[in-house]
Amino acid sequence: MSELRRDPIGGRWIIVDTDHPSKPADFEYEPSAFRQGICPFCYGNESMTPPEIDVIRDPYTHPNTAGWQVRVVSNKFPALQIEGDLDRRGIGLYDMSNGVGAHEILIETPYHSKDIPDLLNNEIENFLILYCRRSLDLAKDKRFKYIMVFKNFGAAAGASLEHPHSQIIALPMVPKNVYEEIKGAQNFFNFRERCIFCDMLRQETQEKERVILENNYFLSFCPFVSRFPFEIWIMPKKHSASFSRIAPEEISALASILKDTISKLKNLFPNVSYNYIIHTAPTNGESDVEGYHWHIEFMPKLTRVAGFEWGSGFYLVSTPPELAAQYLRGV
Amino acid sequence: MSELRRDPIGGRWIIVDTDHPSKPADFEYEPSAFRQGICPFCYGNESMTPPEIDVIRDPYTHPNTAGWQVRVVSNKFPALQIEGDLDRRGIGLYDMSNGVGAHEILIETPYHSKDIPDLLNNEIENFLILYCRRSLDLAKDKRFKYIMVFKNFGAAAGASLEHPHSQIIALPMVPKNVYEEIKGAQNFFNFRERCIFCDMLRQETQEKERVILENNYFLSFCPFVSRFPFEIWIMPKKHSASFSRIAPEEISALASILKDTISKLKNLFPNVSYNYIIHTAPTNGESDVEGYHWHIEFMPKLTRVAGFEWGSGFYLVSTPPELAAQYLRGV
């Protein structure tokens, strides 16, 4: 028998196969690979990228040369351009605008072949600090309404370069998915005077069956309404709408739970590709986001999205999240 | 410079790369392949599938044996089960239900290696007639609110079997994507007293630059707000909310434009995988769908969806639809 589950925030339904659930060995995924060759993100090739916007580097080393730990540069092929003002106009039925925004690349480590599980905790903390610093800096630009930090790892996840890196995009409007998530959370807040994510943390901690890991500041779990098999959310226990307001002790706890959670996943699925996205509040003030709670959504690329998902917005999930969490706890 | 475009129905934004647009040769896609071997959808293997629900077959041939042209069977691994009533319930914060619905497979042709461009027009008409017949039959079941017809072709598009087939899913609720599309169209209708899709047809026919093909009853074009490079919509010129009310002369015109459009795409991108979905009104009466207009959305699998798209609902489109239509017209 299959089971339908409804996302309490956005109203999306998923179909969970509880009858013939997929085991880890059932997934045929395209493994990520690290080939050697000329990589613009490796030491010595700093001139192949635009100049550094922000960096953490060894003392006495020079900008745009080796000696850095984390390096942020403009995307050489940006989706949006930093210059100009937003110019919205109509063409008959349609609306359009010029593409104003920012598109930065954060090179997480000098090591070409080290993904998050292979890094030291303080190396992960370093790039989380730069996620934060870039978000705060871009938020000062009044043209930008939303800053999105995300990572594509492996070709199957859409990464065009292998060297581990994240992306930071500043957008001139709040994107539809974010807007709907915030609106859904705010509706719940207006009705119950409680944060739906805090309620979720309480229920997950109590029921335990979907929890993977927990520390003083964070919980990692497979969400009840997963859109993908082995989807994972990492959520701060402290209610806060904005990732960029994270406290130093939380950075260190986040580095640790991120590393341990991804390690577990990669033990189960060696060389799996994945995406993660930091879900956070828009930059334009804190009004109407009391009910919002930042978190990270993590999606391993084990399956392909097909016509049914594209057409309906329903998702077919072949491994129930309870079972996925059990497999992840076990490794 | 890139360009932002806003979907006038759902409010989704896309980012179009107008500065360095991708040419057809720039896409590295995973080609679809037809391997031989035991295929449950080939002649002689009819016992490997559940029994026929509907069929078009040669006179004097027996059910569930060779001699058919189009064959509809239950999915052996259905996402939803046909038995039982919907039983919605809550678990703490979450909503769930049992998975009531129907999940059928329509085998389009007895030929293992013939995709739509390789079929005769009347062979395509035959499976379109069965799309329609199954939709009308499933709509009689009062438990079902929505019937979705779609096709996954090639592994990159999520097809697990190569033999050309479509799927028909009956759902106990109107899916979120469909609901939003209908609501968006209805808002426009309430405001303007016109169908937004009819307006779109008028504008596309007038501007011509996004049109691929046209016949008496249909237009195929690259939509102004494409989510994917070389996305194609096929739209009936006659305003009608439901695909299943299609007239016989329209079936024949649809077979012809479907074949010619996919042929053009496959000339440009040999062995490309693709999904298409018939967007149609819910089955529960015609109230509040005056502003809706059925159509087919066709998505070739040339790129991968990455973290930015998942997180934001923005889509990055590397070939402007105007240019895509020009390439498609040229072959």
What this model shows, in words?
The structure is a homodimer of 331-residue chains. With 331 residues, chain A is of the alpha+beta class. Chain A has a single domain, classed as HIT family, subunit A (2-Layer Sandwich), CATH 3.30.428. In chain A, 26% of the residues lie in helices and 24% in strands. Chain A has 6 helices and 15 strands. Chain A has helices at residues 121-139, 176-192, 196-207, 248-268, 307-312, 321-330, and strands at residues 2-6, 13-17, 52-57, 68-74, 89-91, 94-98, 102-107, 146-153, 165-171, 211-214, 218-221, 232-236, 274-279, 295-300, 315-317. In chain A, α1 packs across α4 (248-268). Chain A is globular, with a radius of gyration of 20 Å. In chain A, 50% of the residues are buried. Chains A and B meet through β1, β2, β6, β8 and β9 of A and β1, β2, β6, β8 and β9 of B. β1 (2-6) of chain A pairs antiparallel with β6 (94-98) of chain B, so a sheet runs across the interface.
Strand order of the main beta sheet of chain A, please? 3-4-7-9-8-13-14-12-11-10
Q: Element order, helices and strands of chain A?
A: EEEEEEEHEEHHEEEHEEHEH
Largest interface, chains and sizes: A-B, 72 and 73 residues
Straight-line distance between termini of chain A: 28 Å
User: Roughly what percent helix of chain A?
Assistant: 25-40%
The assembly state of the depicted protein chains is homodimer
Number of strands of chain A: 15
Uncertain stretches of 5 or more adjacent residues of chain A: none
Dominant shape of chain A: globular
User: What's the number of structural domains of chain A?
Assistant: 1
Mean pLDDT of chain A: 94
Structural class of chain A: alpha+beta
Radius of gyration of chain A: 20 Å
In DSSP terms, counting alpha (H) and pi (I) runs of 4 or more, how many helices of chain A?
Answer: 6
CATH architecture of chain A: 2-Layer Sandwich
CATH topology tier name of chain A: HIT family, subunit A
CATH homologous superfamily name of chain A? HIT-like
CATH class descriptor name of chain A: Alpha Beta
Strand composition percent of chain A: 15-25%
Main sheet specs of chain A:
10 strands, antiparallel
